Amino acid sequence: MSSSFSDRLAVRQKAYKRGIDPEEGRRKLEDAAVQIRKQRRDEVVHKKRVAMGIGTEAVASTISPGEYATESTAHLSPMQLQQLYQQLHSGDPEAERLAVHSLGKMCFQEGRLILEEVLHSGLLTRLVSLLSQADQPHLQLECAWVLTNITSGTPEQTRAVVEAGAVPHFLKLLKVQNEELREQAVWALGNIAGDSPELRDLVLTATLPPEAPARARSDGGAAAAAGAGRSVASPTVSATTTAAMGYPSANPASPPMFSGGSSSSSARPRQLATIPPTLAEVGGGLGQVPGMVGGGGPPSEVLALLIALLRDCDTTAILRTASWTLSNLCRGYPLAPFHLITPALGALSNLCYSTDEEVLSEACWALADMAADEQRRPAILQAGVCRRLVELLSNQNAMVQAAALRGVGNVVAGEGRQTQVMLQCGVLAPLKNLVGHNVKAIRREACWAVSNIAAGTPEQIQQVFLAQLIPQIVRTLEEDPAFEVRMEALWTLANIVQGGRLEQVEHLANSGCIGPLVSMLAVKDVRAWQVVVDTLGVLLQVGTVNMHRNGSNVNLVARAVEEAGGFQRMEERLFSLDSDTYAKVEHVLGQYHQAEGHDDELEMSAGSEASGSFGTSHQGRFDFI
Questions:
Q1: What integer pLDDT is reported at residue 28 of this predicted model?
Q2: What three-state secondary structure class fits 344?
Q3: How does residue 102 score in pLDDT terms, banded at 50, 70 and 90?
Q4: Dihedral sign of CA atoms 536, 476, 362, 383 in order
Q5: Do the beta carbons of residue 319 and residue 363 sit within 8 Å?
Q6: Cα separation of 101 and 139, whole Å?
């Protein structure tokens, strides 16, 4: 058995148990996820504002419609910027609100070019300062919406909002009674936290600003408070608005947006489950988890406010947005200091019992990222969410399945006792179904999770056999059209031959895996070749042991490899391989390939065997229990 093969598998069993750099892979996945998530939120924000009628009201008191930037004019003129600046510093709340509305309308219509001009015109600082006008909720809402759009832009634009001092003001808005204003603040904080680990940690450590005295209201402000002005100032969201946002309709006759939801109303009470079974109830017994209680510094104010908001909110919109923001605060690499995000574990555990698929997905992704760190993985198990993650593997929504699957995969990538907790929760049955999923990414991660279980103890490998997963893995190795999925299936077999008992490897040889293994020699991937050759080398050694034990003259594994064309492919590629792979292939050919002229003897000896169970088809020679 090759020592380099053992070394490579040992590296794979650390953290992700993969042959690639786990940190690089996680970072790429996280960057892609952040961009997708921010884009999705940005799109929903725009839909919400359009549905509320923004852009349809006259704002002649600020800038006439003819002065708006149009589709053919993607820039604000110096005169327009000067007018906006004067209006925002006029001291008249109504004039300021209309100016912010005009700015928001132009930002929405023209996109990122307008945002850049806002950043460099001095208007951004004024927008942030207006967030503190607690006696003008309509003005605060307008400013929060414009700033949220800016935070959904480029990293430079997001950082500009942070440097202008917006984060403490958004934290303060989490405590107001205006529902829309709270949601907008949560949204902006989610955008900032999702931008980068640095900004995420800044949000986690931010503190509330000192209380500022209320500004005296002018006549224009009194008119606004009395109800004058456009309808966007009202916190009420109509059924048309919620439908445009993609949320369940408030009309009881409308069907629910998600198959897993229990109500079609956007104002249904949030359903929190009781704390799920602890690790001790499923046989884990890890004891006290370091870092779960106290130490490390002061608690995060934003997490405390978000958890309180999640506990008290009664609308689907805020629940989804707050769950997404909470997830962003707990995700990203490098991970946030654990003492800051530990309070979120209880909230995330409860969110895993939500009836809303989007909330479920966000909670599972946050838990999955925490479980990727070996120091924090015990706390995830202690929170008692493993059984729920396994249950969610059978959810009908693919995004929930993918998120739960990542969490399960990260747990089984850990120590043997952590993998055992998942096995006791019944993870193998849903994994068997997901290996044949119609989504490639889910198939790949399901095979990855199985390969990590197969890298465990012989007893854990035995459970993989008993769950009848090996035929499914062998079929995936042979038939799946995606190379990435076949590679994970290949790693499952490689881990079994490396860590399994002799009878387990013999059973694997009888499972019809020789042909699919040989088929992987048709690819040009160096890593695939190395894993296949090493795996076949172990199987060939077991075939030799079986040959001597039975008093036979034929290595049935070698015969199966020959019939599948494996030796021929090795010979054809021998001189184009790298030196390490060349040495392995040369050893296999020299040790097991039958010399020319001995074919008749091979056939006669093979015909005298009673079972011939090492062939490419399973004959069931070994009684494997």
A1: 52
A2: helix
A3: confident
A4: negative
A5: no
A6: 9
- By C-alpha distance, which of 158, 383, 195, 358 is closest to 289? 383
Torsion angle in degrees (nearest 10) through CA of 468, 472, 477, 478:
120
Dihedral of alpha carbons 229, 152, 264, 350, sign: negative
Residue 576 has a pLDDT of: 85
Cβ neighbours of residue 1 closer than 8 Å, sequence gap 6 or more: 498, 537, 538, 541
Average pLDDT over residues 177-194: 93
SS3 at position 73: coil
**pLDDT at residue 202 above 60?**
yes
3-state secondary structure of 308: helix
Cα 457 from Cα 467, distance rounded (Å): 16
Determine the average pLDDT of the residues in 487-514: 95
Q: Which of 593, 569, 582 has its CA nearest to residue 518?
A: 569
- Other CB atoms closer than 10 Å to residue 604's CB: what's the count? 11
Task: Identify which has the larger pLDDT, 220 or 488.
Answer: 488
Question: What amino acid occupies position 421?
Answer: V
Give 58 or 323, the one with higher predicted confidence: 323
| Amino acid identity, position 425 | C
Q: Tokens 């790298």 map to which residue? A: 578
CA distance 325 to 319: 10
Record the tokens describing residue 31, joined without a space.
């960057």
Share of the chain above pLDDT 70, in %: 67
Provide the 8-state DSSP code for 249: P
- The DSSP-derived string for 208-239 is PPPP-PPPPP-HHHHHHHTT-S-GGG-----H
Burial class (CB in 10 A: 0-12, 13-18, 19+), 248: buried
Reported as a pLDDT band with limits 50, 70 and 90, residue 279 is very low
Given a contact cutoff of 8 angstroms between Cβ atoms, the answer to whether 101 and 52 are in contact is: no
Residue 45 has pLDDT above 80, yes or no: no
For the segment 336-355, the average pLDDT, to the nearest whole number, is 91
Residue labelled with tokens 């995420």: 200
Q: Which of 309-318, 428-437, 592-601 has the highest mean pLDDT?
A: 428-437
* The two three-digit tokens of residue 298, written as one number: 């002061």
The answer to which of 114-128, 157-171, 200-214, 251-265 has the lowest mean pLDDT is 251-265
* Token digits of residue 300: 């995060």
Residue 75: what pLDDT?
Answer: 61
Measured torsion, CA atoms of residues 583, 584, 586, 587, in degrees rounded to the nearest 10: 110
Contacts of residue 613, Cβ cutoff 8 Å, sequence gap at least 6: 510, 556, 619, 620, 621, 622
pLDDT at 48 over 80: no
HSE-CB at 455 with a 13 A cutoff on CA atoms is 31
Residue 446 has pLDDT above 90, yes or no: yes
Residues 556 and 614 sit within 8 Å (Cβ to Cβ): yes
Q: What pTM does this model have?
A: 0.71
Q: What is the pLDDT of residue 122?
A: 78
Amino acid at 584: K
Q: Do the beta carbons of residue 560 and residue 514 sit within 8 Å?
A: yes
Q: CA distances (Å), 1 to each of 54, 514, 542, in order?
A: 70, 18, 11
Identify the CA nearest to 326 among candidates 312, 339, 308.
308
Long-range contacts of 87-93 (CB under 8 A, 24+ apart): 87/62, 88/123, 88/126, 88/127, 88/130, 89/126, 91/218, 92/218, 92/220, 92/221, 93/133, 93/136, 93/139, 93/215, 93/217, 93/218, 93/220, 93/221, 93/224
